[in-house]
Amino acid sequence: MKNARETIKEIINKSDYDIYLDMINRDISGRNLPDEKKVEVITKSMQTAVDCYNELLNMCGEQTITKYAIKLQVEILYVKEKPTKYYTYIGLFNEKKKLITINIETVRLIKEFAEQFNLLDLVDVDRIKDTVTAHELFHYFELIKPDLYTNQKIIDAKIFGLIKTKSYLMVSGEIAAMHFAKLLTNLKHSPLVYNKIFALGKKQVI
Ligand SMILES: [Zn+2]
Fold it and tell me: Are 166 and 154 in contact (CB under 8 A)?
């Protein structure tokens, strides 16, 4: 079995495109899409992230992530909740309240696991909170911009084997949010690295 450091190194060495392709292939609706549709979803989701990033930069210039949130009038709430077997999260966005919730207990655990796994030379552990906040800020963009690609019904949904309707592809928004967070925080590796560290580490604590 690969150790945690090797697993994380492998992700760090992957291109963003390949990381997003993995995300689609793990997604229950995404994995059955034809290859050319997967390419389209990845490129358009990445472009959506770039467009939102440029718009935010034009609007506010280079700022800290917290200042972007203030500018966009999105509130950030920090909570400390121990992860359980059934429910863990790092960040959430509440559309109705325009509120981002960051679980600093999960953030702390990711740092702790990164130390345990001897990853401090590979992983930027000081940007977890910013990266999660930036990810959730993208979901705010999705809320105020219904026309975004990631808000469109982009896949054919099959009901009883027949193409009946179009449906949303959630993973498209997650790809864009992840890419947006990477751009906004100027992170040297994919934000997915944090999720993976947490997934590997949490097995020991819950
Ligand atoms: Zn998300």
Answer: yes
How many angstroms does the Cα of residue 135 sit away from the middle of ligand 1?
A: 6
* Tokens at 58, concatenated: 């034009």
Give the integer Cα–Cα distance in Å for 193 and 197: 6
Task: Tell me: pLDDT of 161 over 80.
Answer: no
CA distance 46 to 179: 6
For residue 170, the CA-to-ligand 1 centroid distance in Å is 9
Q: Where are the domains of the chain?
A: 4-205
Q: Are 93 and 100 in contact (CB under 8 A)?
A: yes
User: How far does the centroid of ligand 1 lie from the alpha carbon of residue 134, in Å?
Assistant: 10
Predicted confidence (pLDDT) per residue in 47-65, tens digit:
999 999 999 999 999 999 9
Tokens 């560290």 belong to residue: 197
First vs last C-alpha separation in the chain: 21
Phi first, then psi, for residue 165 (nearest 5°) are: -155, 170
Say if CB 28 and CB 58 are below 8 A apart.
no
pLDDT per position as a tens digit, 118-144: 999 999 999 999 999 999 999 999 999
Amino acid at 67: K
Ligand 1 mean position, distance from CA 173 (Å): 7
- DSSP 8-state code for residue 77: E
